[in-house]
């Protein structure tokens, strides 16, 4: 079983007073159901589970509930094992199929006789659009593909090893060569495999990239099928086109998604809902432009300018021909990997709670990411995949521009930790060490 950080969040929920349900969200196939099932088995004497995709009859019945009492009665009728008060957790998987369950959850948890764990994807954004979502009665945990640290655990690396690298980074001290070499080697594999659990398990079982690419191909098919099944009918074809365009747009020079790439589209408002569906479903990550790299970044966001990545860098890399992998294990990739490295950084930042933003202007150039901590301090991030990582004109220009509010500047690249003036250079595999995400 893959060790996941979300388990600690589940445990925090369990240890808290029992007046909240646990809602586990995330894109399809990021490991929600598997982790929830394991956690329930390990922590409760009785587990009663309902899968609203596999059991359509139960889904239909629960959807007819007219009150919390009616919902509980229907649950008890559908349960395959007894509901034992104060000893049972009720697990409802794919809860987005029956959103009224969330509406009544407040009243069920107030009774205090059972614990409830709900899991669901964001497909169709049903969960996000419930008017009476009982926020005060839900502990929400969003899951993502494995981040790099979790991938290291899966590959057998002791947790203390990555932790020691994080500690050195915090002190701006270089990593010993043996530690750097071990982690950069794993990172090259992470770019190829990504963090989707099925792909990681295929890699661990076979050490065969063909097996991994087969898993990735199946995931792409699944997401395309989900668009066909769950997206609004008038949006489906264009959403599919946008999803399929992501690899070519990421591979373009500035990686900004060009609306002109979409047939018959000239204005952003024509496709705003299409992009929103993909990001709310969790299958794509949007990095929005800000008009100025100054706090608060939120007020400077320009929603009509953005980059779009798949939720997982491994899924992105597998969209390209297999020849793309050549040389990557040795840090000598045969193609420009800038877009893939940037996608991996976006994935890591998202998993650690950061809002994804970048900055570009004709005068300054482009900063790959700008992030903000809870105190309002802004960090400018450049991502470099090649040897010329010390060349960063946009970052230099931005740091010298009066009126900008950049407090820190970091270049993440295939290099050890070192500082030169006001720029800190750091290994790209340590993006996850930035743990000061702004409050959501």
Please provide a written account of the structure.
With 440 residues, this protein is of the alpha/beta class. Helices cover 39% and strands 18% of the residues. The protein is built from 15 helices and 14 strands. A 5-stranded parallel sheet has the order 2-3-4-1-5, sandwiched between helices. A hairpin with a 2-residue loop joins strand 13 and strand 14. Helix 9 (197-206) runs antiparallel to helix 10. It is globular and about 65 Å long. The two termini are 31 Å apart. 42% of the residues are buried. Mean pLDDT is 91; it is low at 436-440.
- From the alpha carbons, calculate the radius of gyration and give it in angstroms: 23 Å
- Count of individual beta strands: 14
Order of helices and strands: HEHEHHEHEEHHHHHHHEEHHEEEEHEEE
Largest sheet features = 5 strands, parallel
Please name the defining characteristics of this protein:
39% helix, alpha/beta, globular, five-stranded parallel sheet
Q: What topology does this entry show?
A:
Elements: H1 6-15, E1 21-25, H2 32-43, E2 46-51, H3 56-63, H4 68-78, E3 88-93, H5 100-111, E4 115-120, E5 138-142, H6 148-154, H7 159-170, H8 177-193, H9 197-206, H10 209-230, H11 236-250, H12 272-280, E6 284-290, E7 301-310, H13 313-317, H14 338-351, E8 357-361, E9 365-367, E10 369-372, E11 378-383, H15 393-400, E12 406-413, E13 418-420, E14 423-427
Parallel strand pairs: 1-4, 1-5, 2-3, 3-4, 6-8, 11-12, 12-14
Antiparallel strand pairs: 6-7, 8-9, 10-11, 13-14
């Amino acid at each position: 079983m893959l060790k996941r950080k979300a388990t600690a969040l589940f445990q925090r929920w369990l240890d808290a007073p029992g007046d909240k349900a646990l809602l586990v969200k995330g894109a399809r196939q990021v490991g929600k159901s598997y982790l929830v099932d394991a956690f329930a088995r390990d922590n409760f004497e009785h587990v009663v589970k309902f899968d609203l995709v596999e059991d359509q009859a139960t889904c239909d019945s629960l959807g007819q509930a007219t009150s919390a009492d009616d919902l509980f009665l229907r649950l008890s009728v559908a349960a395959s094992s007894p509901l034992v008060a104060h000893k049972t957790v009720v697990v409802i998987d794919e809860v987005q199929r029956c959103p009224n369950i969330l509406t009544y959850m407040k009243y069920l948890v107030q009774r205090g006789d059972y614990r409830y764990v709900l899991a669901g994807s964001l497909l169709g954004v049903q969960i996000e659009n419930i008017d009476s979502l009982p926020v005060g009665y839900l502990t929400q945990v969003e899951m993502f593909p494995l981040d790099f640290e979790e991938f290291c655990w899966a590959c057998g690396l002791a947790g203390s090893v990555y932790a020691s690298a994080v500690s050195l980074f915090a002190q701006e001290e270089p990593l010993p060569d043996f530690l750097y070499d071990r982690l950069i080697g794993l990172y090259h594999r992470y770019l190829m495999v990504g963090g989707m659990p099925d792909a990681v398990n295929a890699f661990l079982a076979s050490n065969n990239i063909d097996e991994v690419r087969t898993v990735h191909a199946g995931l792409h098919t699944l997401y395309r099928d989900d668009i066909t099944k769950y997206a609004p009918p008038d949006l489906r074809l264009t959403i599919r086109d946008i999803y399929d365009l992501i690899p070519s747009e990421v591979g373009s020079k500035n990686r900004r998604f060009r609306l002109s790439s979409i047939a018959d589209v000239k204005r952003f408002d024509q496709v705003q809902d299409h992009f929103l569906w993909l990001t709310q479903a969790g299958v794509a990550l949007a990095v929005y432009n800000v008009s100025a790299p100054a706090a608060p970044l939120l007020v400077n966001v320009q929603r009509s300018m953005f980059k779009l990545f798949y939720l997982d860098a491994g899924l992105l890399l597998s969209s390209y021909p297999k020849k793309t992998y050549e040389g990557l294990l040795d840090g000598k990739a045969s193609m420009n990997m800038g877009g893939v490295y940037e996608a991996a950084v976006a994935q890591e930042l998202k998993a650690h709670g950061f809002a994804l933003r970048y900055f570009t202007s004709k005068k300054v150039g482009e900063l790959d990411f700008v992030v903000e901590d809870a105190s309002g301090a802004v960090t400018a991030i450049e991502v470099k995949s090649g040897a010329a990582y010390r060349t960063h004109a946009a970052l230099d220009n931005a740091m010298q521009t009066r009126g900008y509010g950049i407090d820190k500047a970091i270049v993440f690249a295939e290099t050890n930790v070192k500082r030169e003036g006001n720029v800190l250079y750091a290994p790209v595999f340590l993006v996850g060490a930035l743990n000061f995400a702004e409050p959501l």
